[in-house]
Amino acid sequence: MNNPRSFLLLALALVSFMIWNQWQQDFSQPPVAVTAAENTGVPAAATGTTPAPGTIPSADTPAPATASGSTAASVPAATAAAGDLIEVKSDVLKLAIDTRGGTIVRADLLAYPREPKDFANPVRLLDDNAATFFIAQTGLVSAQGSAAAPDHMATFTAEQKSYALADGQDSLEIPLTWQDAQSGLTVRKVFVIKRGSYVVDSRQEIANNGTAPWTGNAYRQLQRVSPPAAKSTFGITNPEAYSFTGAAWYSPSDKFKKLAFDKFAKSPLVDTTVTGGWIAMLQHHFVTAWIPPADEADVYSTSEITTATPPRYIVRAKSPLLTVAPGATQTTQARLFVGPKLPSAMTATAPGLHLAVDFGMLTFISEPLYWVLSKLHGLVNNWGFAIILLVLLIKIVFYKLSEAQYRSAAKMRKLQPRVQALKDRYGDDRQKMGQAMMELYQKEKINPLGGCLPMLVQIPVFFALYCVLLESVELRHAPFILWIQNLTAPDPYFVLPILNAAAMIATQHLTPTTGMDPVQARMMKAMPVVFSILFAFFPAGLVLYWTVNGIASLAQQWFVTRRVEASDKA
Question: CB atoms < 10 A from the CB of 173, how many?
């Protein structure tokens, strides 16, 4: 694949891919059609003014616990002053739960350090810091005429200040309680963590000890600000800059949908009823998702709080209308996945959740590549060696195509003296020169474009693997050998880009320059330098793939060329 004639085409394809990828994020999300749904009443955005009956109050306006003037409950969008924080720790998660609303305001992923091997500073996925604000909320809202219910601004009481999963303990419950003495309504909000799991079970037990039925809705929502822009040099050193960040949701009918933060106002998700789906906030390598019960028809929506600084974005799932008779108890529940984008764990958690590992338009190629790569890692227990084995497998699959390419190149190489003679004969007469070249190719049964097809087939594989290396959290901070201790970061000493350049230069010596004008020939000579500079800023795992592929291609081309020359001599 390192045919010099193909380098310019590859560069064009690379630029086109990046432009297409950015276009997908900027313009491909169509407006979401409004679906008529029972018990709606959640508008698309907060307004920042005093809320009218049945509307969502803004971040500046405290919301009453009971909606009025509407037959349906309205979900408050605001947050309020913090209460007491309850610390919860399992073997993989460290959470902070605010008694104000029973909101999960912090979530540390203990197995994923921010920097390689710095486990004292784990990734904080949920955070109540203003610059990186991201929280998971649950609550209840009452319908018109019903008693007050605790939304995510109500104050709960806790039995303990901290909880920790003990050795030998598989699960742990964290209960919070809210009571309204006037109506007799008691709500017990319970979170459950489990050993080795990134799933937090959440349930709200509604006990009606009053004399009148209670009617309302449960809701779950994720609220966050747009994260700070990923730092990068020349726009390509940080893969996070190319990974989607925003809201996403899934339904069995419409499958996976996503909405970037800058599209919330233009193309909001408006009151769409979904059964068996989930809502989420995505970012590079990590996902947070609320998963309602599979048989529950929830109303999904998004909203933007423009009065907050910076603006906040909400994706919400609201349950069907609940009715709790006097003396009765009813439980509503959901699950929160807060963790890394591990396809196996997400597939086991909810249908379609693995699609949060967003490989983009080349998913149909990326997913099989990821599957093969993970199986190879299971054999060698090293992602770098798994990438090398994947290259060799791909070379075997494309061997016949590559062989045809190199045979065509070897035959054209033999024609170089005759082509030079034609150039000397016809000089600057390009028309006659072209006709003579075509006659020569026809006589020798050579297809000058015979080397393009193998490269065109392999370019999508290259980009698909780029998406795999970009999105696979398993490769995050994964070491290879010696100086490469992070396959998702650039090679710190540029050894792989230099090796790739050497392979390209060697390939140029084996590849004919028949019919190439001087300008094009000079460009071909400059391509190893250009690609070395480009690959110096790419993840080391991708450059490892490309370098090994170049060396393997060089070896195959040398072998085929020698066979063709030996056959001619015989």
Answer: 11
> Residues 6 or more apart from 358 whose CB is under 8 A from it?
243, 244, 256, 258, 282, 471
What average pLDDT does the structure give for the chain? 78
Fill in the DSSP letter of residue 560. H
Q: What is the CA radius of gyration of the chain?
A: 30
For the stretch 444-487, pLDDT in tens is 666 665 556 666 777 788 788 878 878 888 888 888 888 888 88
Please state, in angstroms and rounded to a whole number, the distance separating the CA atoms of residues 436 and 425.
10
C-alpha distance across the termini of the chain, in Å: 28
**Could you give the CA distance from residue 148 to residue 128 in angstroms, rounded to a whole number?**
27
In this predicted structure, the answer to whether residue 49 has a pLDDT above a threshold of 60 is no
Ramachandran category for residue 39: left, alpha or beta (phi over 0 → left; psi -120 to 50 → alpha): left
173 phi, psi to nearest 5 deg: -105, 140
* pLDDT tens-digit map of 249-298: 999 998 999 999 989 888 888 889 999 999 999 998 899 999 999 999 99
Query: Cis omega before residue 460 (within 30°)?
Result: no
Beta bridge partner(s), residue 302: 315
Closest by CA to 534, choosing from 546, 517, 550, is: 546
- Do the Cβ atoms of 276 and 351 come closer than 8 Å? yes
Position 512 scores a pLDDT of 57
The C-alpha atoms of residue 21 and residue 135 are separated, in whole angstroms, by: 29
Return phi, psi of residue 101, to 5°.
85, -5
Residue range 38-228+238-358 forms a domain whose CATH class is mainly beta
Instruction: Say if residues 407 and 459 touch (Cβ distance below 8 Å).
Output: no
Tokens of 341: 């984008």
| 250 vs 391, higher pLDDT | 250
The answer, yes or no, to whether residue 44 has pLDDT greater than 80, is no
Exposed/middle/buried for residue 379 (C-beta within 10 Å: 0-12, 13-18, 19+): exposed
Distance of CA 325 to the CA centre of its chain: 44
Yes or no: say if 82 and 98 are a contact pair by the CB < 8 Å rule: yes
Domain boundaries, the chain: 4-18+367-420+451-569, 38-228+238-358
Q: For residue 545, give the nearest of 340, 379, 321, 394 by alpha carbon.
A: 394
> How confident is the model over 62-111, as pLDDT tens digits?
333 333 333 345 555 544 456 789 999 999 999 999 999 999 999 999 99
Place of tokens 């061997």: 399
Q: pTM of this prediction?
A: 0.77
Query: Token pair for residue 143?
Result: 């319908």
Condensed to tens digits (0 to 9), the pLDDT of residues 207-254 reads 999 889 999 999 999 999 988 876 654 445 566 667 889 999 999 998
Query: Which amino acid does the sequence have at 366?
Result: S
User: Are 281 and 315 spatial neighbours (Cβ–Cβ below 8 Å)?
Assistant: yes
**Distance, CA of 347 to CA of 367 (rounded, Å):** 13
